[in-house]
Amino acid sequence: MIVTNHKDRNFSPVQKLFLNFATSEATKMKRTPVCTEDGTYTFKIEELGECYHSSRGARREAQEVYLQAGLAYYLLHHPQAHSVRLFEMGFGAGLNAWLTYQYANEHQIVIEYITVEKYPIDIEELQTLPYHSDPDFTVLHQAPWELPQPCTPYFCLLKQQADMLLYTPPKSIDVVYFDAFAPNIQPDLWSPDLFAALYRSMRSGAVLVTYSAKGSVKQALRAAGFTLQRLKGSGGKRHMLRAIKE
Question: What pTM value is reported for the model?
Answer without folding.
Answer: 0.88
